[in-house]
Specification:
The model has no long low-confidence stretch (mean pLDDT 95). The protein has 2 helices and 5 strands; from the N terminus they run E-E-E-E-E-H-H. It has a 5-stranded antiparallel beta sheet, covered by helices on one side. The chain has one domain. It is an alpha+beta fold and 78 residues long.
């Protein structure tokens, strides 16, 4: 589970087994984990987060989309 980004209380990562899914990122805080598709950026699973936090995370994902996509490509390229 490589950590790609930390922003405030959030950890942005993906699982090693995510390769066969569309490009996405998981966002964790405490015991909650949300999932965002990256192309285009949209929420896939809220993981128990409230609407305000989802909006914050969405903004962070949008701002770091290129970095997140690059990390995905580097990690999953054979």
């Amino acid at each position: 589970m490589p950590t790609i980004l930390r922003a405030g209380p959030y950890r942005f990562f993906f699982y090693a087994g995510d390769k066969d899914e569309p490009l996405h990122i998981h966002v964790e805080r405490d015991d909650k984990v949300a999932k965002f598709w990256l192309d285009p950026v949209r929420l896939q699973s809220s993981g128990g987060f409230g609407r305000a936090e989802i909006a914050k995370m969405h903004k962070i994902v949008e701002q770091n989309k290129a970095k997140l996509k690059e990390a995905w490509d580097e990690y999953f390229t054979d």
